[in-house]
Specification:
Length: 159
Amino acid sequence: MARVVNILKIAAVGPSVAETRTWLTRAMGDDHTGYLMSAGHSVPLTEIAALLTSELVTNSIRHSRSGEGGFVQITMIDSPSDPLARNGPTLRVAVRDDGGTTLPELRAPEDDEEGGRGLFIVDAYATRWGSGSYGGATVTWFELEYRHLPLALFGARSA
Ligand SMILES: Nc1ncnc2c1ncn2[C@@H]1O[C@H](COP(=O)(O)OP(=O)(O)O)[C@@H](O)[C@H]1O
Ligand SMILES: [Mg+2]
């Protein structure tokens, strides 16, 4: 099975977040059968992928220069499992914006503080995530290593 690569360039405005979710779900197509483990349950890959992508796109709109009439580019790469590296199939999403005065920074959510939870959610679900500056641009990315079947199909498991 080959890698599937999809790229979306979208105006950095609020409604683009929902549009990105639709695009991502469609782009994953037949791989809707992917599942992630979370808190002992198998959850559909597309739901978590859409949630995390929404957070990154929202950040690019709110915190980068793209929000001043620019664009955000989203790249989605779905790679099959690599037996040599012993990893499962992996979905990688990278969100590129025009950079800003801050960089993506994980902040512990505080009860009395508005916001500051987007990257916390990304950190909680992603197998790996990170960010970097490239010229004037900021790229924030995450990877979700998943499996093709929900564990529930194999019956109850203890560990
Ligand atoms: N694409 C980005 N460009 C610049 N700064 C960012 C970007 N994404 C996140 N940040 C910084 O990281 C902080 C934490 O992001 P997040 O956890 O999503 O919280 P929130 O967006 O609610 O502030 C933001 O407040 C911002 O300072
Ligand atoms: Mg945010």
